[in-house]
Write a structure and sequence with these properties.
single chain, BirA Bifunctional Protein, domain 2
């Protein structure tokens, strides 16, 4: 059986707003012609610090002002979840997918993203990563989260996705309660492996995990498309 083809778009290190703009173009493309293609996998490393909030909010106006005073952007998004941080040293993966050609539902899409991150950690030599039962999302080492997940789905088309800490400066997370989870912490591949792990290093293994998990092929597309 022929596997669905997903377009791979690697943006390198870019402002977070550039990722959001490309996401919107792909959303319009898939929603204009539903069922004609599986979609795109958008990957980037944020060029600067950004705090984002989901549909459930998570920041007061005073907190927003305090975070902006640190030199970070603060952006409300239409994804699930609460507040989290994105910045240099983090792999952002936004699969803009029509779930129907892939034979997926929203819950299985979220589980597949978790499985991708777990598999990547295994390929990097970290077999202890795991997903946790609902209502938790993401991937964890013990009580510390290494990968946050927040998605949106409308008319069977997904947006947003996961943020995997590779060599992220974890002190940025100290200014919020990440994802609204009290009593838990964050970690990174660099922290767990005790060496500097770049986003560029993990991308080939992440793509391997994505193809395995989603049972698809990946074809390259220029980021300007």
């Amino acid at each position: 059986m022929l596997q669905p083809a997903v377009r791979l778009v690697w943006l390198s290190q870019v402002p977070y707003a550039e990722l959001l703009a490309l996401q919107q173009r792909w959303l319009r493309r898939l929603q204009a012609e539903p069922g004609t293609e599986a979609g795109a996998l958008l990957l980037c490393e944020p060029a600067g610090p950004v705090y984002t909030t989901g549909l459930r909010g998570g920041l007061t106006s005073e907190e927003t002002a305090r975070l902006r005073a640190l030199g970070a952007e603060v952006l409300p998004l239409g994804r699930g979840g609460l507040a989290t941080f994105h910045g240099p040293g983090q792999l952002l993966c936004h699969p803009i997918l029509d779930l129907r050609p892939l034979g997926l539902r929203l819950r299985t899409h979220v589980a597949a993203l978790e499985a991708c991150a777990v598999r990547l950690c295994e390929l990097q030599g970290l077999p202890g990563a795991r997903a946790r039962p609902p209502p938790y999302t993401g991937v964890w080492f013990g009580e510390r989260k290494i990968c946050a997940i927040g998605v949106r789905c409308g008319r069977h088309v997904t947006s947003h996705g996961l943020a995997l800490n590779c060599s992220t400066d974890l002190t940025w997370f100290e200014h919020i309660v990440p994802c609204g989870l009290v009593g838990t912490g964050v970690t990174s591949l660099s922290e767990e492996l005790q060496r500097h792990v770049t986003v560029d290093e993990v991308i080939p293994r992440f793509l391997e995990a994505f193809k395995e998990t989603y049972k698809c092929t990946l074809t390259s597309e220029d980021s300007s498309s």
